[in-house]
Structure prediction request, 163 residues.
Amino acid sequence: MERQQIPTDTANLPKNGHSKLMVLSSNMTLFWRIFVPFFGTVFLTGLMLAFLLIDEEDLYLPVPILWARIAVVVIWIAWLFLISRTIWRLKRVDADDTHIYVTNYWTTVRYPWQDIERYEEKKRLGRRIINFKLRASGRFGDVVSFLPGSSFEEWKGRNKFFV
Prediction:
């Protein structure tokens, strides 16, 4: 029986006509998109319920209890508004030569590169955000926002869309 040689260099293996999929978004997207909203919402909801359900005699506050309860409810609503307008819009983005793949960790949508009108880079809360503006509204709206990962700059330099 002959020993079969297995190639150690996999770069020259056939790709069956498909290009390699690259992750454009940061691994921190999962932390910002899932952990921070759920942890913060659970914490603030527990705090709000504690203020609303505890009797007035059991709370020793320097302000009237009604003000404290209103303040906690306003903070909770402001948190939900902040999350829905900023962090919840972040997506995970992968790309190959023909399509980008956008996911919110529950649903994945594939867009051809021709559907992207332009891209822009912005700074929000000290973080760099990339926005892909779609020609028409898709499953996640007409703007796809993501935190760029370490491979984004390399991929951007090689891709004809960004030239």
